[in-house]
Amino acid sequence: MDMVGKKMNANRVLQSLTSSWKQFPRDALFFIAASCVNATGKAVMWPLTTLYVHNVMGKSYGEAGLVVLYQALCSVLGEFTGGNLYYRIGPKTMISGSFIISALTLYAIAFTDSWPLYITLVCLLGFTNGISMPSMNAYAGFRWKEHRRRLYNVMYVCNNAGLSIGAMVGGLVAAVSFQLTYVLTGTTTLLFAVFLFFFMKERALHSLESAEPAAAVKEDGRHGHDDARAAVQAEAVRMNLSSLLRNIRLYLFISVGSMFFWLSFTQWTTGVAPYIEEQGMDLKYYSLLWTVNGIVILAFQPFTNWIKQNFAQNIVRQMLVSALFSVAAFSFILFFHELYVYLIIGMVLATLGEMMLLPAIPTFFSERTGVNAPFYMGLAGGFANVGRMIGPLLFGHAFDLWGIGAVFFLGTLSSLAALVMFYIHANMNKDPDPVPEAAFRTLGA
């Protein structure tokens, strides 16, 4: 009877997952699959940049660290630029074009032995990758508006699965040839660009588009009254940079909170990795932590859905809960890190926070900022990349000077700062101003 019961439970889970996927339009599933393949290809290269600079280009690890820093800085600039160019160039042209440039850049990196040219190409790669991120999130939110909450979550899960697969494959490919990793990544990126060029279609009327004020879109995704709807013209959208930036309650605290959140998360790479090595443990135990990260992302979806239904019914509260998980994770390993199992517990809690936050940010901007979502997504993404950029510098110096205790202390303070920022953001965005929302015609479609 026990075996029969377990089989029945497994069947129910499988049916639930199948029915969930069937709720998405077929073209949305194609978009998710292509995005996953692209994430897999990029992850083939990511873990190997430092080794490539040292082993192939013959430079020091310090110079390799500067290259990574330059790339991250260019990615920040790319996010800001992508948010501003979404309507001026059009999502189809910009997204597919940025991926084509990325692919050509990767091919060029594979066949150059010039150090100045390599740095230039890596910076260009970071810039083009940054451009594509807010554009893809905005496009998905506009095109499949009625599915975007679940869509952002599924995209996050699938992309992380792709990252895990790619990171594993990257080591195997690099054992054959470092150049092959760049060629393989360039090929998957180029295929994704071609797919997007033919896939992205016109989703709005050429003239007037019926749109909803964001205040009329309730947290459960249902629409408000018809009298809240307003006709807007897609081509008439004008990005007034100064007025958008003045609306600080809408973007500033969520962006700064995201920056602190990701700053605290970088202590896994800059603090925990050298700590594990310092303790005399094999580095495979560090890799195992990221295996735990991937397993939690895939297996704990029902748990995070339960949290959302019972404790985080709206998006701003979901961000608060994500920060609480982050604070719990880093506070725990601050006081308990002597045993490896404590690090695993900390990774589980931190991953739950990541799972709650990443889909929430694009959802918030899609629902609350309407046609200005690409700009605000790029702005928030730029802040997040600043956190990822300065985290390794901060925690690296802290570890060298004071040890792992200082790293965990600063990481906990950073997670607390993120919690404060998200709390302020939640209190300032209980009743958002009505903002028009529309899907937009892609240029060249």
UniProtKB/TrEMBL annotation:
Question: Domain Major facilitator superfamily (MFS) profile spans what residues?
Answer: 27-429
Q: Where in the cell is it found?
A: Cell membrane
Q: Which PROSITE patterns match?
A: MFS
**Which Pfam families does its entry note?**
MFS_1
Per the record, the coiled-coil ranges are none
Q: Which keywords fit this entry according to its UniProt record?
A: Cell membrane, Membrane, Transmembrane, Transmembrane helix, Transport
- Please tell me whether the keyword Lyase is annotated for this protein: no
> What is this entry's stated membrane topology?
Multi-pass membrane protein
Main subcellular localisation:
membrane
* Spans traversing the lipid bilayer: 28-48, 68-87, 94-111, 117-142, 154-176, 182-200, 248-265, 285-303, 315-334, 340-361, 373-395, 401-424
**Protein name per Swiss-Prot or TrEMBL:** Enterobactin exporter EntS
